[in-house]
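Reagents: none. Just compute today. Amino acid/amide ABC transporter membrane protein 2, HAAT family.
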Amino acid sequence: MIATTLSERRVRSRGGLVGLAVIAATGLCLPFASAGQPFLLMLASHALIAAILALSLDMLTGNTGLLSFGHAAWYGFGAYVAGLLSKSVSSDIAVLILLTLAATLLVSGAVGAILVRQVGKTFAILTLALSQIMFALVFVFSDITGGEDGLQGIPMATFFGAQIVSPATWYAILLGALLLALAGALHIRHAPLGRAWLAIRENSERARFIGMNVTLLKLISYMISASLASLAGLLFVLFNGATSPDLLHWLESGKVLMYVVLGGVGTIFGPVIGAVVFTLAEHYVSSFTDAWLIYFGALFVLIVIVAPGGLFGGAARIATRLSARKPGRRAAQ
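Predicted 3D structure written out:
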């Protein structure tokens, strides 16, 4: 039994490394494929930000089973905090990352200490309420946040005094951030902390009975998830030079949830794939018709019915069936 478990872990570890390598290779090849098409690189950059955001929600929902209806709260929080700090403290991206993540950990720790004590629908509804409260605060403090007009005039980001101007440079930064986030998520998933989260996801009461501090473990998951979403918001505002209250709206939270469900909850790579597919489909389908949501909604329903595990889960199931049909496998059996 132990040998089988160790074997499975090795296979999963190798699978994670292969997936990471595939995403890295695809990401590195894209700038060459988009030569002469700068808009394609810009679209890919937005897809990378969406992928980081989707991964952040999967770190919460996929690991501990906590469903958030208001995850955009931390996306917008990171964008506004980074934008305000950039205008008042420093435009250096390293400084902004440190300060924004510190603020997110502080606030998410205080809020999460209350939220994670709730379960099921209560937790989900409270996260939605939090998102709408933050959305309303943008208008209450419109003198600082810009209100409906959003936060404008964000200084160009710098790194050790050098301005980050080139779209190719920004793309490299965003791809690097996504790869680091994926590597961290894979490491945590196979670490004792990740296995404890999965135990809570499967049965929180049983996890509590065997001595796990379920509340603390959920809080850690919530804070990490919020911090990663905040990082996505920071990258968004620095990349675009502005932000708006839409990032905090419940519609944005619904879009993030669609990323995760479309790609596959708890699969790590699935939400990344879902975010990229959604971002590309949103752009290209909407360019043909204003009613793109109808067609995309129908496609989403079809995918959920045909592949309940999402795009990644469906692809993995097909790959397993194909590998089982190999002549070598049958002969060995």
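Residues 329-333 have pLDDT under 50 and may be disordered.
Action item: order primers for follow-up constructs.
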